[in-house]
Amino acid sequence: MADIAIPRTRHAVPRGLGPLALLLLLGLVGVIGTWGNLAVLLPHGGWWHAITAPDLSQTAELLAAYSFAPRLVMSLLAGAALGLAGAILQQVLRNPIASPTTLGIEAGANLALSACLIWAPHLLGFGREWVTLAGGLVAIGAVLLLSRRSGFAPLVVILAGMVAGLYCASLAALLALFDSHYLAGLFLWGAGSLSQQGWEEPLFLAPRLAGAALATLLLLRPLTLLGLDDAQTRGLGLSVAAARLGALLVAVALTGFVVASVGCIGFVGLAAPALARLSGARRLGVWLVASAATGAALLWATDQAVQLAAGSFADTVPTGAVTALFGAPLLLWIIPRLRLPPSVGAQMAVRRLSGAVHPLRRLALLGIGLVVVLALSALLGPGLDGWSLAVPSDPASLWALRLPRAVAALAGGTLLAIAGSVLQRLTGNPMASPEVMGVSAGAAGGLTVAIFLLADIGRLGQTLAAASGAFLALLLLLLFARASRAAPERVILVGIAIGALLDALVSVLMASGDPRAMLLFNWMTGSTYGVEPLSASVSLLAALALLALLPLVSRWLALLPLGEATARALGMPLNLGRLMLLGLAALATAMATLLVGPLSFVGLVAPHMARLLGLRHSLAELYGAALIGALIMVVADFLGRSIAFPWQMPAGLVAAMIGAPVFLWLLSRKHPAA
Q1: Which three-class secondary structure state does DSSP give residue 347?
Q2: What is the pLDDT of residues 554-595, one digit of tens each?
Q3: Looking at 259-263, 524-528, 598-602, 636-640, which range is the least confident one?
Q4: Which CATH number applies to 2-8+51-313?
Q5: Do domains 2-8+51-313 and 348-561+575-672 have the same CATH topology?
Q6: How far from 646 is each of 386, 520, 640, 641, CA to CA, in Å?
Q7: Which of 306, 350, 362, 647 matches a 20 to 30 Å C-alpha distance to 45?
Q8: How many other CB atoms are found less than 10 A from the CB of residue 353?
Q9: What angle do CA 283, 287, 290 make, to 5 degrees?
Q10: β-sheet bridge partners, residue 388
Q11: CA distance 464 to 583
Q12: Residue 237: helix, strand or coil by DSSP?
C-alpha cells in the first residue's frame, strides 16, 4: 500500500545506490567543506575545543563557537524541515512536483513577516512563527481553492502556486521599495541567509522541528492512505478532508518555522524528496526520513560550499539564492525522470463571453479604449497642488512628464503580450508566457551580467544583452521541451527551473553590496519613472514595427497548434519558422523587460483575455492581446504614479498586482473541454 502512495519515477537508479549511499555522498561533500572552512578559520587546529569552550580573547574561536557552529546546525535543521515539508506536500496532493517553493508557501510566509516587520512589529511579540504560519496558510489555501475544480491536477496546482508565489514576491518587493531603510536587510533575509550570531535561532527551530516530526509520525497511517484514491481512502474509514488538512498544517508549519528563522530557501523542499525517491526510497516511512535527511545534507553541503567560495564575504551571500543555482540544474535533470499524471493542460479551455463574435468590432473597441486611457493618463494626475489636467501646449505643465511614461508603458505591454501569444502557440502550451517560462528572467539575467561586467553600456548594448539572455533561455527551454515531448507540465517545470536559476544569479549579484545593485533593483521592479521622450518614441516605433510584422507570421502561428506533420504538409518551413518565432519572442521580451521589468503578468494574461473575448484566429488574437497588454500597462502606470503620490509605484509591480489576480480568476474558470 505504501508503495502505491509514493509517485514513482520513469527511470530507476542502479540498485546499489540507495538512500544511505546518497546521504553518504552528500555528507562527504559537507564534511570536506566543513573541514576546509575550519582550516581557514582555525589553521592551528583545536576545532572541537574552540567550539565547545572558546577562549574569549581569541576572535577566531568566538567566530567558530557563535557563528560557524550555529550556522552549520541551522543548515541541518532548516534543510531537514524543508525536505520533510516537501515530502508531505507531495504525498498529500499526490503531486511529485509540489514543494513549499512551487506552492507559494515560502513566498506567502515571507510576505507576512515582511509586512509585520514594517507595519505591525508589535505582533512579533507573540512569536514570529505565528505570522509566517498565517502567511503560508493563506497562500496554500488560495492555491487549493483555485485548483479544487480541476481535482487538484498537478499542472493547475503548480500554476496557481507559482503565480501566488510571484504575487507575494512582488508585494514584498513593493514593501522593500517603499521602506528603503529596510531594503538591504529585507533582501538578504528574504533571499535565505543562514548567517548566525549566536545559538538563538537553532534553539528556536530545533524544538519546533521535533514537534512537527512527532506530528508527522502520528500522521503516518493517514498519509499512507492519502496516497490512494479518495474513494478508496473513505472506504477504509479515513476522513480525507481532516487528514489532508492536518498534514498540510504540518507542512506549512515546517516551512513557516524556517522562513521565520532564515528566510526563503528555494528548491530544497522539491529536490530532497525527488532525490530520496530516485535513490530507491519507496515505503512511505523510509521516504519521509530519507527526504528530511537528504534535505539536511543537501543544505549543509551547499552552505559549506558557499562559505568556502565566498570567504570573508560569506555573510553577505544568501545561501537560499545559491541553493537555486544548484537546485535548478538538479531539477532539470530530474524532470525527464518524473512520471507525471496525465496532463489536463491541453484539454482545458476558458469559457468565452457569450454573444456573436465580431473580431474587427472588438479590436476597434479595444483600440478606442486604449486611446482614451492613454489620453487620460497623460492629461490627468496628481501634482503638488492636487489633481489637475495637463495642457499639451503649456511647456510648464506635467504633460511632457506624463506622456513619455504612458507611451513607454504602452510599448512594454504591447511587446509582452505579443511575446506571450507567440510562445503559447509556439509551444502548444496555453500557460506559456515570458514570465512563466523564464524568458523574462533570461532577459534580466543577460542585462545583469552586462551591467556588472561592462563599465559603460548604452541603451543598444542593454537591448542586445537582454535579447541574448532571453534567446538563450528560450533555446534551452525548447531543447528540454523537445526531449520531454512538449508535455505542458514538463515545459512549465523547465521554465520554473530556468527562471529560478537566473533569478538566483541576479540575487547573488544584488547581495554583493555593489552600488549598481540598487539601480538594478529599481529597474527590476519595472519603473517607468524618468523615461525620456526619445526612449519612449523608439520603444513605440519598435512595438509598431513588431505589430506590422505579425501578418507575415500569423499563418505559421495558426499552423503550429495543428502538429508538426500537418504544418509541414501545408508548406511551413518548420525549423526556420520556429527559429524566427523564437527570435521574435526573445526580442519582444528583451525590449519589454527593459521598459517595464521582468515581474509583470501581462504576457500571461493578455492572450487569455483576448481568447476570452472570442478572438480565436491567430492574427486577431495577436492584435487583441497586444491592445489588452498595452491597456493593462498604461492603467498600471497611471495607478502607480497616482495611488501613493508623491511616492512612485513601479508600473511593472502594479501590473503584477493587476495581472496575477486576473490570471488566477481565469485559472478558476478553466474546465475540461467537452
Answers
A1: helix
A2: 888 888 777 777 778 878 887 788 778 877 887 888 788 777
A3: 524-528
A4: 1.10.3470.10
A5: yes
A6: 11, 22, 10, 8
A7: 306
A8: 9
A9: 140
A10: 381
A11: 12
A12: coil
